[in-house]
Design brief:
alpha/beta; D-Maltodextrin-Binding Protein, domain 2; 2 domains; ten-stranded mixed β-sheet; 14 helices; 10 strands; 17% strand; globular; disordered N terminus
Length: 351
């Protein structure tokens, strides 16, 4: 009987602690007001953040933020390319070393950030008026981008009658051995929106039979397509292509949104890092980017849900069907990519 009572007492104690934890989080969120965030940011006076955007893509954004909030005397920005850089940053934050106060959290490693206790639920819609479609369902961050998938091709070397128009054109024998494939098949996941998983896995088999050159990252793929060493990249990232095409009038790489729906992912999930030295300033910057600042971006993958973005306006003019990842798909991203990689035999990048 004593053992039973002891067990009941332990369970009750655990339930009390758990309830207290939930209540404390709720109270903390309730106490967070825009005024308290601004006052905290004033004391901090600076903020540092990181995404995979190029530094020149954020320069105007940072200036506009400081103009609206002049008490932020310094905005530091780092371009983090993922992979080893992300792993190093995670290891450092685990021991309390923060290279930045806010980060772009990639879909497949949200769980890692959660395990380390770095993500905090915030009322982005209530505090900043952010479009709810941009807010993660757990309110741990806001997705300020949508990166559509398509096909990049060399304009000088691909004849007009060979320019891809359909996804099926990517496994045309004409491109055999001249095709760039990304070993992080995130855009293959996007294709399930328009065609279903069975079609995508069959598409993966047919791409494999066309002897792709395996790359890690769209930048590397675009370089080889631009040089003419490869002829197409499929599926490719609109953002990576636009980064070069928007600043190089003679850029030799063309872009196609193939027939059918335009498909794309949520991208650039911006999240303030719990424990960061300038947490309030990071919350302020994140909320401002998602509600106002994203209109200053011209990256080729800014949010299509924000009324002021260039990409959103372009898609509206195109009048094409557009399908964007659900948040459930974000949670399943790693699992879905593993299915594609199993078809491909887990290839290693050649460069």
């Amino acid at each position: 009987m004593g053992i039973k009572n002891s067990l009941v007492a332990r369970i009750a104690g655990f339930a009390f602690v758990l309830l207290a934890s939930v209540v404390s989080v709720a109270e903390a969120q309730k106490a967070m007001t825009l005024e308290s965030i601004i006052q905290g940011a004033k004391k901090e006076g600076q903020v540092t953040w990181a995404t995979n955007w190029d530094e020149r893509e954020t320069a105007e954004l940072n200036k506009a933020f400081q103009k609206e909030f002049p008490f932020i005397k310094k905005v530091g920005y780092f371009r983090e390319r993922g992979g080893e850089q992300t792993e190093r940053s995670l290891s450092e934050m685990q021991v309390g070393i923060f290279s930045y106060d806010m980060s772009d959290v990639q879909d497949e490693i949200i769980g890692r950030y959660r395990q380390l206790g770095l993500l905090v639920p915030i009322d982005w819609q209530g505090l900043f008026g952010v479009d709810p479609r941009m807010v993660h369902p757990d309110r741990i961050g806001v997705a300020v981008g949508n990166n559509p998938a398509g096909i990049a091709y060399n304009k000088n070397k691909v004849p007009k009658d060979r320019i891809p128009k359909r996804w099926e054109d990517c496994y045309d024998p004409y491109f055999k051995g001249k095709l760039a494939g990304d070993v992080r098949p995130i855009h293959m996941v996007s294709l399930t929106l328009g065609y279903g998983e069975e079609w995508v896995l069959d598409f993966a088999k047919k791409l494999l039979a066309n002897n792709p050159r395996w790359m890690r990252g769209q930048t590397a793929a675009n370089l080889l397509v631009a040089s003419g060493e490869l002829l197409i990249s499929c599926p490719a990232s609109h953002g990576a292509h636009y980064r070069q095409a928007s600043v190089k009038p003679d850029y030799p790489v063309g872009w196609v949104f193939p027939e059918g729906p335009i498909v794309g992912q949520h991208s650039n999930l911006l999240s303030p890092m719990k424990g960061a030295p300038n947490f309030n300033a990071a919350v302020l910057l994140t909320g401002w980017i998602a509600s106002k600042g994203v209109a200053h971006l011209d990256t080729g993958r800014e949010s299509i849900f924000h009324p002021g973005t260039k990409l959103g306006a372009e898609f509206k003019r195109m009048n094409r069907e557009i399908k964007v990842w659900s948040w459930d798909m974000v949670a399943q991203a790693e699992q879905r990519m593993q299915k594609v990689l199993k078809v491909w035999g887990f290839p290693r990048p050649s460069k």
